Amino acid sequence: MMASDGVNGTPGCRFIKEETVYQGEWLSLGVTTYQDPQGQHRTWETVRRTTRCDGYKTDGATVVAVLKRALHYDQLILVQQFRPAINAFTLEFPAGLCDAGESVEDCAIRELREETGYTGQVISVSPTTCMDPGLSNSTTCLVTAQIDGDDIVNIRPKPHPEFLKVLYFPMNELLTRINDFTKKEAVTVDSRVYMYAMALQLSKGKDPVQRSPGRIDKK
């Protein structure tokens, strides 16, 4: 990897080497040595997925799926599941890892069907996006999909048994409903889901920040 130009003639950042400390079935922990903008060598503890297919830039797909039915409000499809890493239930978009030879679009449709039972149509696919770059190399593509709820294949969807709970949130009051849900249920909302809801609120010209007694404001 070539070093990029730094500021005022200083060397740019560049990768030097990585040593694997632990190798698991799904993840590995390594120590990455790199050069900082001042030319100093530093180390960084890095988590990497071991499952990324050869030649792929992304690990998988995250599906922003909207259910559309006649005479009904549009609904965002989310899933609730237990995540051992944070010892909590989470509220997330349907998502999963790409299989070898599988396109991001096909991965999104498969994961949507497996996790929710719905068959959707891909509307758009984002570039590869990072998920937690301060910790890992994990990446995903954000795939928007539309579900025809009046189609016979989507009348009584049957998800594969994956210990998931499928939830429906009206798009016209998404942020409010998510906030209400977290007050009633002990769940942690995925940051992508909450940011999507905030952006939707902002697009309507409304303040997405809801002040509460537990929020600390610096004056």
Give the arrangement of secondary structure elements:
Elements: E1 14-23, E2 27-35, E3 41-49, E4 60-68, E5 75-83, E6 88-92, E7 95-97, H1 104-116, E8 121-130, E9 139-148, E10 165-170, H2 174-184, E11 187-189, H3 191-203
Parallel strand pairs: 4-9, 6-11
Antiparallel strand pairs: 1-2, 2-3, 4-5, 4-7, 5-6, 5-10, 8-9
Uncertain stretches of 5 or more adjacent residues: 1-10, 213-219
Portion of residues in helices? 10-25%
The SSE order reads: EEEEEEEHEEEHEH
Residue share in β-strands: 35-45%
Please, could you describe this protein's structure?
By secondary structure, the chain is an alpha+beta fold. The chain has two domains: 14-49, no CATH class; 60-205, Nucleoside Triphosphate Pyrophosphohydrolase (Alpha-Beta Complex). The chain is 17% helix and 38% strand. It is built from three helices and eleven strands; from the N terminus they run βββββββαβββαβα. The protein has helices spanning 104-116, 174-184, 191-203, and strands at 14-23, 27-35, 41-49, 60-68, 75-83, 88-92, 95-97, 121-130, 139-148, 165-170, 187-189. Strands 4, 5, 6, 7, 8, 9, 10 and 11 form an eight-stranded mixed sheet that branches. A three-stranded antiparallel sheet has the order 1-2-3, with no helix packed on it. The longest helix has 13 residues, at 104-116. The relative contact order is 0.15. The model is unreliable at 1-10 and 213-219 (pLDDT under 50).
